Amino acid sequence: MEKFYIITNTIKDPDLEVTRKITQYLEMQGRKCRVQKADRKYEGAYHYTNPDMVPDDTDCIIVLGGDGTLLQAARDMVHKKIPLFGINLGNLGFLAEVDRYSVHSALEKLIRGQYELEERMMLKGRIFRQGELVGEDLALNDIVISREGPVRVVRFINYVNQDYLNSYNADGIIVSTPTGSTGYSLSAGGPIVSPNASLTIMTPLAPHTLNTRSIIFPSTDVITVEIGEGRRKDVEHGIASFDGDTQFSMITGDRIVIERAEDSTKIVKLSNRSFVEVLRQKMSNN
User: Known catalytic residue: 67?
Assistant: First the structure.
């Protein structure tokens, strides 16, 4: 790799100390490197990182922060089709596996080509109100449909490939990718799935029934979740959240159609750390 681009989380690296060290190291090795700060943008075509500032011939985007920062970068950069490499400035992550103390050895492996690329599927969610599209976004981890307002359950009506699946009262529903299986879905009782698998996981949040569990679908299936009426036939309010970030309001009758996104995210993985190793270390720390 010759040309690098750094996306840095200034909350995790406020004085840009780590960012400067990486830039200096790469330039000393004769590589080109540019930097962009990941700042929240509330309106516009991107969330945190402007993809128009990233040259198309970039070999690798280095993301400094943690898994959350990498999720943000993936959503903004997915159409650029440039591999992402995460460096964790906090706790050990599943996506950003290299910490600040292993930066130089990791960069050396990148330069020497000692790495692998993993394709991670993403989800696209489109929200419809009376047949009209009112919101859409992408997610690398998950799309969560949950209640909004007073603490009470909501009726969710679920379809797969336009065929009725089931309906139940619950706090919400998580539709996740294999990458997101170790996140919110796991805490709600969902299964752990190898991140390079090709499937979709549907996990209910606190369902008011004893026989509702996670369901795994092929990645080609299209999942639709509709907000049902309240107990008194009144209007219910919900929220569709993408990777715990972007949110869209939903009301009774609204539908969110979730399917595999056309583009996927490429994650750079160093050959000496597998998903199983990270999983084992995570589980031993809990």
Answer: yes
